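S1.2 Input.
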Amino acid sequence: MHVLPSTWAFRLKCFPNGPAKKFKAHFCVRGDMQVEGVDFFDTLTPVFQWSTVRSMMILATRMNLISAQAHITAAFIHTPLGPDEHIYVRQPAGFHCDGDLMLKLKKSVYGLFQSSWNFFNYLSDHLVAQGLSPFPLDPCLFVGSSLVAVVYV
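S1.3 Output.
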């Protein structure tokens, strides 16, 4: 069993005039310490083709279609790990309970090599369940009867 170290990533967001607006913290895993074949297997995430994006923009302009974009907040932490993925991490600093306990991840987190791959598969499954199908020439393009979606992870 390979145990990965974890860490916190802190960020301070400020108002334009300087005062603190929000303190943010992300739980991250030291993915650079993962061992291929032990901690992860697939990491290659499909990347959209710029020609696809340009074609979609041209079609939207020429045909007066509605075009929109969306951002999925905290995308990786919504994504469950695969059934054959077992990732154990040490507790981050400041989060120690009695003893030297380890955490078993149930979802992807920032820092893992396979996080973007897992999220792409999770999103693809949901898009297919909604009636969209991946385009054969570009796996990031999903086509439905009244909707076309380009996915960028």
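S1.4 Remarks. The mean pLDDT is 84.
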